[in-house]
Amino acid sequence: MSALSLQQQRLGQLRKLGAIFAPLGQEETRTFHRRFLESFVDPLRYEELVAALTRRRAIDHHRFLRADVVRGGAPPQGAIAWLTSGSPSTACIRIEREPWLPGLHLQPTSLEEIWLSSWPGVFVCFEAGRAILVTLDYERIYCTLGGRSPYR
Fold this sequence. Notes:
This protein is of the alpha+beta class. The chain contains 5 helices and 7 strands.
């Protein structure tokens, strides 16, 4: 199954589950991807990841993270509440592993925890300075700027 077909299947499932989202345009997706890079990616790996964005291969974003933004352990209140820093009205962005696919603007309160953890890629809430990366092994990696500013 192609990545685009898989994404369409996921979007259909999200609609059935009542998730509130809007697909982003390609330019807007690139803008959010760059913002993620500037905030959460190790500056020594930044150019490598920028180059990877131009290739037609899936990206494992967690390999490029700044060590100082990775938070140990799962938050006690749940991933979605943690991601939005407790503000249910805060939206988040979903960045796909496949950089050529459009991202999503999501209303996190419309998502189920289980759905978030079963969808490899990046969920980021820039307003809260937090991101959750889901690996292909369904490991969740929690990242927070925690008052730190982006490197760039």
